Amino acid sequence: MSRPAFSLAALCGCFVLFLMLSCFGGLSPYPLVLLSGLCVTSAGLGITLIAYAKGRKAYIATASGIWLLFVLLTISNWWHADFFQSYYNYQALALGGDAGESAKSLSAFPYKTQTLYFAGSTLFCLLLSFVLYQKSQHKPGYYIRTSQLLLAFLCITAFTITWHSYQNYRRLNLFTLSPSLLHPVHAFFYSMAEGKVVTTAERQSWRHFKQLNQPLSNESRIPVSGKNYNVILVVLESFRASLTGYYAGTKLTPNFDRLTKKNLVFNNFYANSNYTMKGEMALLCGLFDNNAAPQSPNPTSR
User: Fold this and answer.
1) Contact 69, 189 (CB under 8 A)
2) What single DSSP character describes residue 175?
């Protein structure tokens, strides 16, 4: 094989690794993620091949930019998915002012090894491609053009299938993108807003919610108790039973454990939904989320 062939092989290896290691350092078991990754990687590789034919400087600049974009978006999505169970997308850039505070939580990031392996292996292939780069002496650039056409076909086909599948997921009442739906880079360019896709169940829940919040016309209907109680409702976001001393025997929540000794504790209470908004509606209004994904009744994951 000639130097250009080895260089192109190393470049292809870089993008193959982007596809193979995108799911927290491994290959995703979900076909939709693989299709989404095929769309993204074929598009990135196609753009890079265009720069490859232009010259060494254009190639290095373009390939380095795409590599950096892919690595940053993938790792950002890993971090976001680990803490919030949803993908990081362009709308989250509005929270960039909190980046300093968010960086403090990187010490608890569980995918440090996978991140180093992911970034290091793809960078090695890319640098190897730079070292072996040699502009093809074949003026027509037949192989590169053929590769670009093939990549364009793969990208369009994969994107079409992914978009159709994603719209079906939207109809299933998803407010955010689950980490099992799209490739991290692909998901960054999708909106997490619900848009105009509203299910019949949501309309019924909304009407029920408004009925529950209608003011009472007759105050005499309000039951009067002989005692006045002060009720304080404390709701903790992303707080698991496995972090508490009462449920899991840790020493992280002394104040919470002190409350459990003096008050009533429920040992069989589970989250009603996968999302904060719907969990609050269930807790405050008694509206069950019929689209919530089933979770295993593990006592340490209440």
Assistant:
1) no
2) S
